[in-house]
Design a protein that fits this description.
alpha/beta; TIM Barrel; twelve-stranded mixed beta sheet; 10 helices; 12 strands; binds S-adenosylmethionine; binds iron/sulfur cluster
Length: about 325
């Protein structure tokens, strides 16, 4: 039975999978310590999905009922022809929401063209407001560049959320509090992400995890109580709170301490054309040879449907099962 005929892709646990996260490149202009090793190497260009291959896959996924798409990386803003790609995706029937997760470094130049091309919203990664710590966590990044990118995005009218990965002993105390303080003056959502152990840096990551309850206690001690929003209903994967009198909100993405697999609606496409149905499992399906060897759209839909049907129930972090790829090779 072909589920795409009903424009809804269901897995065997009756989850409706309709959100695709696309890694546009595995390359990055930073080397965040929790994401990739300093000596990371990147894939040659011929192994990466070409523009027309990517746009074809977006059309195929949209025909299957996918309506929400997020561009990520590596660093998605390093992708050549980015604005043309965004425009092509925006013009694809069925694409309802098109967002991007970026480190923000190049947004000073790109925010306006991206908005004009049809991008709906941005998540910008900022782990600390402290310039020295920012440099240490990213290995060489300059917070001023990210800040300039964030200002340009605001001017361009792009709604913004801020992603902060919290690392024990690095940014889990005053830095996390400083980020939360931003919500008093800005309508932003600050999303605190628990470090997930992956790839070549997974030992470091395991010792770096700060559970959500501990982090919320640290923030409340400094800034006062926070109210749970929407009765605890997740916004994407984030549990939402608001500090008293704040304009913005705080989201906690706690894949390790409070897994949200039961409500997962995602699939992931890597820059080298692999389909992943769980960020934290190694199981992947290589679409590239089929794309390059004459598969029809219907063939592709059938393969994707089969993979969605077999989507794993959840990750295996509790059993110490960790994925081999680095985060930058999937996109978060
Ligand atoms: N380069 C872009 C950026 O940093 O926003 C997009 C790709 S990055 C892999 C996507 C998100 O994953 C970022 O918010 C990043 O902070 C987060 N991330 C990276 N490594 C992580 C890890 N080990 N655990 C949890 N989140 C991680
Ligand atoms: Fe690059 Fe994003 Fe990974 Fe940092 S988190 S190294 S910016 S891909």
């Amino acid at each position: 039975m072909l589920l795409y005929s009903s424009a809804m892709a269901l897995d065997r646990f009756n989850r409706n999978i309709h959100y695709l996260r696309i890694s546009l490149t595995d390359m990055c202009n930073l080397r965040c310590v929790y994401c990739m090793p300093e000596d990371m190497t990147f894939r040659p260009r011929e192994e990466i999905l070409q523009d027309e291959e990517l746009l074809r896959l977006v059309r195929v996924f949209a025909r299957m009922g996918f309506d929400k798409f997020r561009l990520t990386g590596g660093e998605p803003t390093l992708r050549e022809n980015l604005t043309a790609l965004v425009r092509g995706m925006r013009d694809t029937p069925g694409v309802r929401e098109l967002a991007m997760t970026t480190n923000g470094i190049t947004l000073k130049q790109l925010a306006r063209p991206l908005k004009d091309a049809g991008l709906d919203r941005l998540n910008i990664s900022i782990d600390t407001l402290n310039p020295d710590k920012f440099r240490r966590l990213t290995r060489w990044g300059r917070i001023e560049d990210v800040w300039a990118g964030l200002e340009a995005s605001k001017r361009a009218g792009l709604p913004i959320k801020i992603n902060a990965v919290i690392v024990r002993g690095q940014n889990d105390r005053e830095d996390a509090v400083d980020l939360a303080r931003l919500t008093f003056d800005h309508p932003w959502q600050i999303r605190y992400i628990e470090v997930m152990p992956m790839g070549r840096v997974s030992d470091f990551q395991k010792s770096a995890i700060v559970p959500e309850d501990e982090l919320r206690a640290t923030i409340s001690e400094a800034l006062g109580p926070m109210d749970l929003l929407d009765g605890g209903k997740l916004d994407g994967e984030a549990r939402m709170f608001r500090l008293k009198n704040a304009q913005g909100s705080l989201g906690f993405i706690s894949a390790v301490s409070k897994p949200f697999c039961a409500g997962c609606n995602r699939a992931r496409l890597t820059a080298d054309g692999r389909l992943l149905l769980c960020l934290l499992r190694d199981k992947e399906f290589n679409l590239m040879p089929h794309l390059r060897n004459g598969a029809t759209d219907e063939d592709l839909m059938e393969m994707i449907e089969d993979n969605i049907w077999h989507k794993p129930w959840g990750h295996g972090l509790a059993q110490d099962i960790r994925p081999t790829r680095n985060m930058s090779e999937i996109g978060g």
